[in-house]
Design a protein that fits this description.
Elements: H1 9-21, E1 42-43, E2 50-52, E3 71-75, H2 82-95, E4 103-106, H3 109-119, H4 124-133, E5 141-142, H5 150-155, E6 160-161, H6 163-172, H7 175-186, E7 190-197, E8 202-207, H8 208-212, H9 219-230, E9 240-246, E10 249-257, E11 282-287, H10 302-332, E12 335-340, H11 355-370
Helix pairs in contact: 1-10, 2-3, 2-4, 2-11, 3-7, 4-11, 6-9
Length: about 400
Amino acid sequence: MMRVMVVHNRFHVKVAVILLLSISGCGLPRSPVPLASIPDARVANFSEVRYWEVEYKPDVKTGADTSSDCSFLALSGGGANGAFGAGFLCGWTVSGTRPNFRVVTGISTGALIAPLAFLGPEHNDELKQYYTTIRTKDILDVQGLLGFGIGPVLMGESYASTKPLQKLITQLVDEKVLIAVASEHAKGRRLYIGTTDLDAQRFVIWDMGAIAGSGNPDSLNLFRKVMLASASIPGAFPPVYFNVEVNGKKYDEMHVDGGVITEVFGYGRLFAGTSVQKGLCSIYVIRNGKLDTESEQMPRRAIPIVSRSFSTLMKAHSWNDLFRLYFVAEENGVDFNYVSIPHDYESHGKEMFDPQEMKKLFELGFEMAKSGYKWNEVPPSLRKTGEAEWIWTP
């Protein structure tokens, strides 16, 4: 439910109201994994293609792959704000300094960007197309009474249908993309996407290259399904169910947006037992949203108070994510870098996914990267007072 509040003010207020109304609603039938067997569940007909967060340790060795350097890219969630990250990647290419990343991770909108970012600059035109031309109707289909979505949430599990988003993901990832990801995986590069297992209340990291290169005839479907799950905002979108097995018995797992647990992830103990020379490896975090505080005088009304509280919670969530990555990077001798939407940027979108607003965000990210953006090397609250990230001028 937390991720609902970061998408769009009018949208997340509406969702908050209908979720409160639906607390007593009846659930739909399913076949969940027995609680005691949750750690033993495996994706049906696939071998090791995912990990719990504590098991996550990318198979990366310095110098093992001459086609990429020791750089890691982490793409956050943020809905339509993903246009900023897409633009930044394209501008980074133009600057001539964009690395060929060893590891790419993505959550939510970052999960949609991640496969194309992983495959490199030759997919920049696609990133620009998808993040400057889509509208809300290309992402979701609102259902229910008078378009408010009350009916489906009270009787079902979501405010809107993700059929349009499923169609978009099908266009983003075809057989050629799957084969290309598998090829890069074979070279030692890694692509990971995160989801939240609601039954287990845990973060799940999917090895997308292992899925792509599995040889399983259902690999393309699973690849797309993971991307959909990572972007499925709970309450707004229906959960995604994965068929799993425990001791030969079939069950289902309920997965939603990875942003419920973390907005961005980079790596675990990448270099345990090895010595990494400072400056040899770097992690780059693209935060598709603002990080600085945004003061606002609040009225004495319930909905604005709830809305503001959730958005504040999500901002604190993002700070904690950066702190975690920063201190792990420091511990491992990895250079830490991040960029976010400038604090003085003002959004004027007329709908949740407004193509005009997304074009502005894309161009903003593009120009920042193209001009040789100086990365932030410490989380926001550790910066010196008055130290600005970037001043935006429309």
